[in-house]
Each structure stands twice: as structure tokens, then as C-alpha cells.
Amino acid sequence: MIRAKKSLGQNFLIDQNIIDKIVNILELKNKNILEIGPGTGNLTQGILKKNPKKVLVVEKDNNLSKLLKEKFKNKIEVINQDILKIDENLLSDQTLTVFGNLPYNISTEILCKWILNIKKKIWFDYLILMFQKEVADRIISDFNTKNYGRLTILANWRLHIEKICDISPMSFKPKPKIESTVLFFKPKKEFFSLKNSKNLEKITRIFFMHRRKMIRKPYYQLFNRNINVASKIGIDLNSRPQNLDFDTYFKLTKEYENLRG
Description:
- The chain has 2 domains: 6-187, Rossmann fold; 197-259, Helicase, Ruva Protein, domain 3, CATH 1.10.8.100.
- 35% of the residues lie in helices and 19% in strands.
- It has helices at 16-23, 42-48, 62-72, 107-116, 133-139, 150-158, 197-207, 216-223, 228-233, 246-259; strands spanning 12-13, 32-36, 54-58, 77-79, 96-101, 124-132, 159-167, 172-173, 180-187.
- The model is unreliable at 4-9 (pLDDT under 50).
């Protein structure tokens, strides 16, 4: 008998109505699919019914990997590795449509890794991902709200995001203590161009380190007390980090890059 491992943040999706809703978001026929954290394969089964061209699944748990191989045979390719240690750009020479009931304990880390590692040729066409509701609320929040932060800015830099639905704890086994949310992501064709995505990560990390304090101190730290950049962009240094919208953070990052050549 397979038991969910708390250490891996496992909660297996068992609600067939939710599974049907997720696999019907897109037409999957002849698509190349990547599923993260398939668990016991309930969502995998739903995906296979849609006649995709190929299905890759990444499952870190050794016992679950063996179960999936026995259950689906050659219908899927099982990659028994940690998704955080995989270079997603090398998973396939074809563009992948990604599904994931992401482990709650590393979901934000996975999403940030994927965004920061996007190359010129993007390895995915869509992401259909499940998060803790409070994490999803942060991803889709707007500026001047309590949920707005680094994750919001990074995700909205390169991706269009749409909320699909909330999911009750009753839809999982074992039942988590919180609600979940499914989000749909699509790469933006037009986005603010930066030399290095890591610079946006750095700017937002430093600004939101003390989110309730004024931005003067982190601004001075990054720009060596040079107030010309703030004047150019029109930033009030008495603002709090959540008061600055997406474009302001993108412009700040661009100025930071320009000052460093």
C-alpha cells in the first residue's frame, strides 16, 4: 500500500470531477505532455484518455515511480528524479504542455526556477499547475494589496496567468489542511526585456525583505544613494514595496543593469 510522504509534500488528487476539469482545459490530442508529481497516477490516467502524443512524468519518490511504471507500462516515460535538479530545457526537443499537482513545500521554488531559466526558445507552451490557495493568491494578486510580492512580479513578467478553480481538501488523500487552486499560465509574446532574469530576482528580493518599511533603504543599497534613477522613473522613496507596480520593478531592474554595464 502506497502512503503519502509528508516530507515530499504529497497529497494525491482523487476527485474525478476535478481531474476531468483539469484535463479539459486544453485540447491534448497529439500534444507532448509533462506531468510533475503524478503520485499514484490519477491525473495521468485522465491525461492519457485525451490521446496525447507523448507523456513524460517526473516523480521523485522511488516507490511511486515503480508503481507508475507497472500501472502504465510503455504509455508513459517515468523520470525518477527531483524536478528541482532537472534542466527542464533538456527534457524534450518538443514543446511540452505541463501539468502539476506541485508539492506544497517547493511549489514556489519550482515556478521561480522555471521563470528564471526561460531561454530564447521556451520549452513549454502552457502550464496547468496546482498550488496552495494562499500561494496562488500571491501569484495573481495586484500591487497595493497584501498578497503582492516577489512571486507576483516574477510570474507576471513572462507569463499570462488565469485562475481556473479552487479545490477543496476533500478532493485529496490525505486531506490537506488548506484549499488548493489551479492556475493556467501562458508565455507572453511581448514582455519587458532584461539582460539577466536574476537581476529582477535580486531587485525584488532586496525590496521585499522588509515589505512593511519604506523603500528608501533598499533603494540606496542597490543604487549607491543615486536618486537620479528614482527621479527618472518617478518613484517616491517613502513608498512601501507593495506600492510599486510591475512596470516600475522592471524599469528599476533595467536601470540597475545599465549602471553596471
